[in-house]
Amino acid sequence: MPGALLLAAALAAVPSAAPPAPAPEALHAAWPGVRLSPPSGSYAPEALRADLEALAGSSRGVVRIAEKGRSTEGREIAVVLAGSGPEKVLLWSQMHGDEPTATAALVDLLAFLAENGAEPATAHLLTRLTLVVVPMLNPDGAVRGDRRNAQGIDINRDASRLQSPEGRFLKELRDRYAPSAGFNLHNQSPLVTAGPGGPQVAIAVLAVSASRNEPDGPSLARKRGLAGHLARVASTFVPGRVTRYATDYTERAFGDSMSRWGTPTVLLETGGWHGPREEERLVRLNFVLLLSALHALARGEETADAPFYETLPPNVRGDLVDLVLRGATVHGGRGLPPFLSDVAVVKARAFAGDGRRLSSAAVVDVGDLGHLAGLEELDAAGLVLAPAPVGGAEAWEKVVSDLAARGLAKDGAFLLDDAALAREARAWAAGRAIVPWATVDLVLFRKGEKGLVVEGFVREGSRTK
Ligand SMILES: [Zn+2]
Fold first, then answer.
1. Distance from the CA of 95 to the center of ligand 1, in angstroms?
2. Ligand 1 mean position to 166 CA, how many Å?
3. For residue 425, how far is its CA from the centre of ligand 1 (angstroms)?
4. Which 8-state DSSP code applies to residue 203?
5. Phi, psi at residue 280, to the nearest 5°?
6. What is the tens place of the pLDDT at every residue in 31-83?
7. What domains appear along the chain, each with residue ranges and CATH number?
């Protein structure tokens, strides 16, 4: 059946006497009890396969491994089915190898379905929907921590040419199952704000266009509704931190193509949620959002939240960094006279979504940075900032003993005027300078009565003592 007809049939079949959908808070509370995914929020392909096989083996038929595709380098791409309903829903994650959050959430979601198959709301979902789940479309990229596949292709830009085995496999799945809804699951940069100057974005959604000017109709209503549902539920956990992902119609992208091929598709982009155990909290939030959206679909209520989608602020990039030091007196490491400056630092991350990936923390800007916000801000007025030597605390100890041997450090104070500090910092920094895209640790001094006193360091993008 063509996708459009199948969609119409699915929309016409309004469920009767559906049990109440579980509240998002209840799903959130259920997560620790079913959760299989690792604390890192990131699966290696072998560990993923082991968890999926264990789940399939113990779920009494609720969760089945349907088939396995093959990546460019021959790694397995598991497809997991759950439920037996007439309406097929395709969910795929980690087509970008370094975007693992939804993969972990999908495993936990499958574990929840396997565990709760007899409970009325879950049983209803499983008789209304058949989930077609691809937890990790790009295992070769996952192994390398790389967005792209082993060919170097961005699979999400290969929907027209289908030159990647992974892209071809995803297209085959779409054609075989003709799903009436699609979930395209990604991580975006955690350094994005909700509107200009807004807070850090945790979740961004998009009703993906099927054409440059998609006309109103059931497909668009379904996408807006699902995107609105994801956003509304997310907003109860991360208020103000949910946005609309801004992108134009992209013919060669998969979400757009899925929609064009007849599977209305929403994009879910997980950003950042600053604080301890960030990865786990984001996996848990994804678990709640996806399960809640599937309940809405199963109950035929998925268009109800379309108005909420229209209220979302846009994703804004380029305004947020990890750390800003404000108003420091900077000795940049090139032997120049000191100057007043802010300094912005971005950390390395195990996964960074579509942002610029760094293998080490880096200074990303210096100067007047009033337009930038930091997840952490440090008032550095009155502090003197210089590059730290490469080699951490040990290297710093050597610098201190060397200065002491020359009579320039005594009783924890450094007897250095501006010219001397400029000269010494240049020597110990050994070519590193506090300039954009430099990977350099920082040392912070305060001016004491006897000289400069170390106030702390910035190592790997974090303030330390
Ligand atoms: Zn992505």
1. 7
2. 14
3. 41
4. E
5. -65, -40
6. 999 999 999 999 999 999 999 999 999 999 999 999 889 999 999 999 999 99
7. 3-316 (3.40.630.10), 320-464 (2.30.40.10)
